[in-house]
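INTERNAL AUDIT FORM
Audit reference: QA-55
Scope: verify that the stored structure record matches its stored sequence.
Auditor: D.O.
Record contents follow.
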Amino acid sequence: MTSIEKRRQARFLRRKARREAQKKRLYGQCNNFERLISYRQLYRAHKKSRQGVSWKASVQRYQMNLLRNLESTRRALNEGKDITKGFVEFDTMERGKIRHIRSIHYSERVVQRSLCDNALVPILQRSLIHDNGACLPGKGIDQSLDRLEAHLQKFYRANGFSNDGWAVIFDFSSFFDSILHRHCFRIYQKAFSEQKILELLRSFVVPFGCPNTGRRNNPCLRRRNPLTNYTGKSLGLGSQVSQITAVAYPNAIDHYIKERLKVRFYGRYMDDGYMLFRHKESARRAVKVLMWLCPKLGIKLNTRKTRITKIKHGLRFLKVKITLTNTGKIKRRLTRKSIVRQRRKLKKFAKFVAEGNMTTEEVSNAHASWKGHAFRRDGIMAARKLDELFRHLFGRLAPRCQLKKRRKIKWRTKKRNRV
């Protein structure tokens, strides 16, 4: 072994030892049940959980006796008691699809926030791929769309400055309802060795496998003795533990596609994902592999939404149409359905205002929120047209409906001093 090889080997061993020490330190902090139920962490979890919902009566009731509630929660967790109180169940209509929401109580949400911030997210995040961008700190829809643009730019350069290629857009059907609890428990057991943390996670997951549990004091919520109607699958949309678990659930599929199939341009946001290929045969092979991997985890590929399209024709991901032109420019546009839906919403809001069920200020806030969404998708022209409809329906009562004019920057050169 030469001197250069010896130095490289020594550097590799030092880096490996540093990584192992960092991993051991992280696991020591996150695998500590006493730390996540301490007063400091529970109070921090309460301050994060109340953001945006402090006007609700349940949050205000919890804050009135904050210290007493934190003390009772900590004592119950220390004694191993079940802190779940059932769900508040309701239905929402989103784009014509009915979604059944089972929301947990605020006292339970505080514990879940502390559990996720101090244990679940730091441990599970280490094993996730970088392009898994849902429900994680520093990531989100905008970050996932930016990563797709970066992948398209790299694909354009790697493909000889050409946009000839194929994209696979896939979607999982009834993703949250198909998640198996035994696979979730297997993920938890690999991540934690503290038995109290595993029991706490189990108590948050098991109730979602009991349909029609009701609001509280239901015997189906018992932790170690579920009833016969326990299905062993399904997670809820109103729980942070469920969201983080759903992000990590198809992690085996992500690593198989990235490492075994060697797919360089791949990304996933919860149950939506994409892959970029040069040849159509490779895209078809990847779809077959997906159809082979999904049943092993109990999830099903949505054949209606899974499709293979040409990259130059544009691809739709997260309700945004992204097109790679011949020159390498990337165009990001809103889908027509989202614009039509917003027009219908404004007309429906006008009826609500006339009936006295809404105020113009509430409508203005909702419209301003949609405009912020449109600006990030290069939809300034669509926003201008909808502003005209807004002024036609509501007049100029709401100042937020007006677009701010862009300031023109005038470049001035310094005048030379003439002698």
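Auditor finding: record pair retrieved intact. Residues 213-226, 403-419 have pLDDT under 50 and may be disordered.
Action required: none
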